[in-house]
């Protein structure tokens, strides 16, 4: 019997390695990626005591708002296509492109926005530790971030 990836991970394993392990094993995903032209699609691949892993799809033009992960650290890797991560530096958005196999880890207070600026669909795998409990959405105005809303796991997604 094969042990699911998430149950073999310890707290010492970094989240980017976890995301990459799941990305490398699409035959083990409990569902296939889906695409929704009205909004980004996402589904949880795995959950454990200290982390969770999500699969997200991005049609061209789809994006998140500026957001954090409610105190959870995280990482993502690109399975197909490419995405751009926008972060706030010096009161402005700066962009970094990520293609197939690229990824990054981030801390518990990281604020970013992810967008598919390309012409092809993209698939990404995201890992969070601990599991998400809330997300704060922000607005950037005149070089300053302000809170737009806070959403709660189990109630809003």
How does this structure look, described?
With 157 residues, the protein is mainly β. It contains one helix and eleven strands, in the order H-E-E-E-E-E-E-E-E-E-E-E. It has one helix spanning 15-23; strands spanning 41-47, 52-58, 66-67, 73-80, 83-89, 92-98, 103-106, 112-115, 122-129, 134-141, 144-152. A five-stranded antiparallel β-sheet has the order 1-2-9-4-7, covered by helices on one side. The protein has a three-stranded antiparallel β-sheet with strand order 3-10-11, with no helix packed on it. A hairpin with a 2-residue loop joins strand 5 (83-89) and strand 6.
Q: Brief description of this entry?
A:
The chain has 157 residues and is mainly beta.
Question: What is the CA–CA distance across the termini?
Answer: 32 Å
How confident overall, as mean pLDDT? 92
Order of helices and strands: HEEEEEEEEEEE
In which order are the strands of the major sheet placed?
Answer: 1-2-9-4-7
- The fraction of residues in strands falls at over 45%
Largest sheet: 5 strands, antiparallel
């Amino acid at each position: 019997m094969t042990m699911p990836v998430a149950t073999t991970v310890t707290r010492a394993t970094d989240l980017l390695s976890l995301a990459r392990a799941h990305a490398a094993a699409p035959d083990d995903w409990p569902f296939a990626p889906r695409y929704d032209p009205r909004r980004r699609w996402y589904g949880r691949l795995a959950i454990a005591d200290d982390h969770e892993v999500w699969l997200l799809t991005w049609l061209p033009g789809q994006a998140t708002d500026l957001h954090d992960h409610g105190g959870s650290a995280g990482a993502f890797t690109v399975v197909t296509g490419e995405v751009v991560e926008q972060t706030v530096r010096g009161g402005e958005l700066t962009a970094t492109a990520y293609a197939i196999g690229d990824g990054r880890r981030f801390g518990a207070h990281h604020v970013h926005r992810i967008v598919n600026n390309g012409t092809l669909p993209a698939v990404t795998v995201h890992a969070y530790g601990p599991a998400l409990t809330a997300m704060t959405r922000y607005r950037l105005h005149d070089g300053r971030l302000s809170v737009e809303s806070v959403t709660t796991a189990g109630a809003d997604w």
